[in-house]
Write a structure and sequence with these properties.
The protein has four helices and four strands; from the N terminus they run E-E-H-H-E-E-H-H. With 142 residues, the protein is α+β, with helices and mostly antiparallel strands. The protein has a two-stranded antiparallel ribbon with strand order 1-2. Strands 3-4 form a two-stranded antiparallel sheet. A hairpin with a 6-residue loop joins strand 1 and strand 2.
């Protein structure tokens, strides 16, 4: 593998890149010592949930995004979220003004589309659970 240095057009091979990385690491260590900073490797934050969607997840995400479009047409569904909880776990969280709105949503276009595709998209059937909200903070509410 080679990379082109666009400034002067020279090709860099992996050995050159590794040498540059080693020099940068050495320079960083020297600067940390000079400035009195800790010299151990910094523990950077790591996000265990990848933010890119794979080709295999495309249809899952497409149906959830199309659900958002349909949710905009549901006046009784003021809150609707499509979620990815892990690389293989997706979900929807929504809320309603009342039970009538909830039932309208559960019998509406989003639920029909999701249930029609569920056997081919999901390894287990979708779980629809009713929760009780014990507290709420929503600064964006109007």
């Amino acid at each position: 593998m080679s990379t082109t240095n666009h400034k002067n057009g020279a090709d860099l091979d992996m050995t050159s890149i590794e040498a540059i990385e080693a020099e940068l690491k050495k320079f960083e260590l020297e600067e940390r010592k000079r400035l009195g900073l800790p010299v151990e490797d910094a523990k950077h934050w790591f996000d265990a949930v990848p933010r890119e969607f794979t080709r295999d997840q495309r249809e899952h995400t497409t149906i959830l995004v199309s659900g958002l479009t349909m949710a905009h047409d549901e006046p009784a569904t003021p809150i609707w979220f499509a979620l990815r909880l892990s690389p293989t776990t997706f979900g929807v969280f929504d809320a309603f003004h009342d039970e009538t709105g909830r039932q309208a949503h559960l019998n509406g276009r989003i639920a029909q589309a999701l249930m029609a595709k569920a056997p081919e998209l999901f390894s287990v059937p979708p779980s629809i659970e009713k929760i009780e909200v014990l507290g709420l903070k929503n600064d964006g509410a109007t």
